[in-house]
From TrEMBL, chains A, B:
GO terms for cellular component: mitochondrion. Residues 19-259 form the Pyruvate carboxyltransferase domain. GO terms for biological process: lysine biosynthetic process via aminoadipic acid. This is Pyruvate carboxyltransferase domain-containing protein. GO terms for molecular function: homocitrate synthase activity. Coiled coil: none annotated. InterPro entries: 2-IPM_HCS-like (IPR050073), Aldolase_TIM (IPR013785), LeuA/HCS_post-cat (IPR054691), PYR_CT (IPR000891). Keywords: Transferase. It comes from Clonostachys solani. Pfam families: HCS_D2, HMGL-like.
C-alpha cells in the first residue's frame, strides 16, 4: 500500500501527519433516524467541536428550510476558529454518479452531471467561495466517468474533490487502488476529501489508508452518528491517528475535549456511548486478566496502544474477578492504604478468586473483602 | 495490496472466499471487565455460535480453575459441529514476544520462547492434537525474531501460526506488509490465524486485508466483546465478507442466526447492542433523508450495501422528520391502506415537515397525522 515505497519501489504522499478533519455531526444529526436538534443544542455542539479544534464544521444546507437557514446564521455568528461548511464559509456539492443513483441512461446523466458541476463551481469561484465536489458513490462509479469528471471540476477550479463511500461498501485495498490510480493518472493533484460510511466496519481503516494514499481531508461525526451505520467516528479516528502520527494528532487537536464532546452529542441525539467505543468506552482502559493486569502495572505500554492520559482518562485495573492476579490486588491494597505482606495479599487474592467463582463481584465487594481481611489480620 | 496483482505484477493468495471463523466470545467474556458467565449461559452461547456455524469455538483454558474445567467438559459434551478450542479439540499457545512483553533480556527470552514453544508443539502433535502457535504482539515484535520463531514452530509441526495485534494498534497497510513479507520469505506457507483488537477502530479493516493477503482464519467475538475495546465483531465481519464474497458468506454461515446470537450474548454480558452496530443496529436499515428515501423506494441498492433480508431483517423508511420526502410518505400511506392522490400526499407531507420543525415526531405521531388528514379528506 501507499505511504511507504512498495514492492515496485513506487512511493506516494502520505498525509498521516498533515490531514484536516471535516466534522459532519450537525448535518448528519438532522438526517438521522432518531432526532432533530434545537438551535441551542446545535450551538453547543458547534462550540464543543471548535474546542476539539476540528478544521471544518459541516451543517445542514440552509436551503432546506427556514429553521436550517436560521440555524446556520446562528452558528456562523459564533465566530468559531473552524470553517463552517454549507453555504456559509464554503459549499459542498454532491452528485450521485454511479449507475445506481442515476435514473436516466448512464452517458446522458454523466454529461448532465459534468455540465452542472462545472457551471456551479465556476460560479462559486467567481464569488470567491470555497468549492468542493464529491461523487456520492465513488466506488461503484465507472472509472472513466470518475476520472473525466474529476478532471473537469479541477479545471473549473474546485478547491477539493471528494471520494465518497455512501453505502459503506469499500475496503482499505479498494481505497488504496482508487487513490493510487487517480494519482498515477495525475488527475487529482490537489486536496482530496474522503467520506466513508461504516456499514461493514471499515470506515476508520479506510480513512487511515486514504491518508496514506494521498487524501488530505477526512469526514467524521462524533461517535460516528449518521444515517444507517453512520460514518468515521471522530474518537476512533483520532485514536488511530494518535498512534499513526502522535505529534500531529496531539499538537493540532485538543484530545482532552473528546469526552465532553461525545457527552454533548450522545445526550443531544439520545444514544448511549457504545460499550466498546475507542478511548471512552467504559472498559477501554480497564484491565482484568491476571497476566494482563500484572504487565500493565509494570509497563502500561504492554497492553495499551496509547496512554489514556492523552485524553485525560485514567486506567482501571479490575480485581473483582476469578482471573485477577495478586499483583493487581497488591496495587489496590496500596491504593486503599492497607498494610499487608505479599503473603497476606496472596492469601486475600485466593479468597477473592474463590468468591468470584461463586458470584459476580463489584469493585465495592472486593474492597469490602480487602478491608475485612485487613481488619482480621490486625485483630489477631 | 494483495489479493490482486500489485504494481510489481506480484500476486498472492486471497482467501476472502475460503476463510474460517474462530470465535472467542466465551473466552473473552471471562476475561472481560463486566461479567462472569454461568455454565448454562455458556452452553446457550455455544449452541447459538454453532447455529451460526462458526468453525471454531474458543473457550477459557480448562487449566484456569475447577469451574473452567467443568465448563469446558459441558461444552465439549454438546457434540457441536464447531471445533471446541482450548485443551479439548485443539490447543492454542500464546507467547508475548515483543520487547514490551518480555521482562528478561530480549535475546534470552527469545531463546526460551522458541525452546518451550517447540517442546510443547512436538508433544501436542505426538498426541495428535491440533496445535496453533501465536505471537501475542506481532506488530511490535522484532521481524527477525518473528520469522525465525515462525520457522521453528512450523518445523515442529504447528498446524497454524497466529498473527496477533493484542493492543489494537495496527493498520491495514501494516497487516498487508507483514503478510506479504512472511509470504515472500516462504516462512508461513500453511494456515495463518489473525487476531485483531479494536482500540483504534481498524479490526475489521485489518481482518479483510489479512484474508486478501493470505490469512486463513479470523478470530471474532459476538458484538466484538473482549478486554478493553474487544476484537473483530462477528456481525461487522460477516457483513464485510458478505459484500466481499457473497456466495461463500451466505453458503457457509447462517447469517439469519446473527440477531439471535447477538441477543443471547448482549443479555449474558449485560450490554446494549451499539446504536451503530453493523446489520443489527437500530438504524442500520432505516432511511430518513428525502432523497435517500426516494431512491431506496426505487432501488434499495442505491443506499444499501446488501439486502437486510440476508439477515432476516426488514428495512424501514422513516417519515417522521423535516427532511422526509413525499415519496416516502406515499409508501407509508399505502402501507396504512389510506387512499390519497399524489397532491393530497404532498399536502400532508408539507404538514409533517412543518410539525417536525416545531417538535420531534415519533412514527406514531406521523401515522396519527396521516390518519386524521385522511379522515378530514373524507369528511369533506
Amino acid at each position: 500500500m501507499s505511504g511507504t515505497p512498495n514492492a515496485a519501489g513506487e512511493s506516494s504522499p502520505s498525509n498521516i501527519a498533515s490531514y484536516k478533519i471535516i466534522d459532519s455531526t450537525l448535518r448528519e444529526a438532522d438526517q438521522w433516524a432518531t432526532n432533530t436538534l434545537s438551535r441551542d443544542t446545535k450551538v453547543a455542539i458547534a462550540k464543543a467541536l471548535d474546542s476539539f479544534a476540528v478544521d471544518y464544521i459541516e451543517i445542514t444546507s440552509p436551503s432546506l428550510n427556514e429553521q436550517a437557514f436560521e440555524d446556520s446564521k446562528a452558528i456562523a455568528a459564533l465566530g468559531l476558529k473552524a470553517k463552517v461548511d454549507a453555504g456559509v464559509g464554503s459549499v459542498a456539492l454532491v452528485i450521485g454518479a454511479s449507475s445506481f443513483s442515476s435514473d436516466v441512461s448512464h452517458e446522458k446523466s454523466m454529461e448532465k452531471i459534468q455540465e452542472s458541476a462545472v457551471e456551479v463551481i465556476t460560479y462559486l469561484k467567481s464569488q470567491n467561495v470555497e468549492a468542493q465536489f464529491s461523487f456520492e458513490d465513488t466506488f461503484r462509479s465507472d472509472l472513466v466517468d470518475l476520472l473525466s469528471l474529476y478532471q473537469a471540476v479541477k479545471e473549473a477550479g474546485a478547491d477539493r474533490v471528494g471520494i465518497n463511500d455512501i453505502i459503506g461498501g469499500t475496503t482499505p485495498r479498494l481505497v488504496d487502488d482508487n487513490e493510487k490510480l487517480t494519482e498515477r493518472k495525475g488527475v487529482i493533484n490537489g486536496d482530496i476529501e474522503c467520506r466513508f460510511h461504516d456499514e461493514t466496519g471499515c470506515a476508520v481503516g479506510n480513512a487511515v489508508t486514504a491518508l496514506e494514499a494521498g487524501a488530505t481531508h477526512i469526514d467524521t461525526t462524533v461517535l460516528g452518528i449518521g444515517e444507517r451505520n453512520g460514518l468515521v467516528p471522530l474518537g476512533a479516528f483520532s485514536a488511530r491517528m494518535l498512534v499513526a502520527a502522535p505529534e500531529y494528532a496531539k499538537g493540532k487537536y485538543n484530545l482532552k475535549e473528546l469526552k465532553a464532546l461525545e457527552t454533548v452529542v450522545s445526550e443531544a441525539v439520545n444514544i448511549n456511548v457504545p460499550y466498546n467505543n475507542p478511548v471512552t468506552g467504559f472498559s477501554a482502559f480497564t484491565h482484568k486478566a491476571g497476566i494482563h493486569a500484572k504487565a500493565i502495572l509494570n509497563n502500561p505500554s504492554t497492553y495499551e496502544v496509547f496512554d489514556p492520559a492523552e485524553y485525560g482518562i485514567t486506567r482501571n485495573v479490575a480485581i473483582n474477578s476469578r482471573v485477577t492476579g495478586w499483583n493487581a490486588v497488591r496495587s489496590r491494597v496500596d491504593q486503599l492504604g492497607l498494610v499487608m505482606t505479599d503473603d497476606e495479599v496472596k492469601a486475600v487474592t485466593a479468597k477473592i478468586k474463590q468468591t468470584a467463582d461463586t458470584r459476580p463481584l463489584t469493585i465495592e465487594d472486593t474492597d469490602n473483602i480487602l478491608h475485612s481481611f485487613h481488619a482480621e489480620l490486625h485483630k489477631a
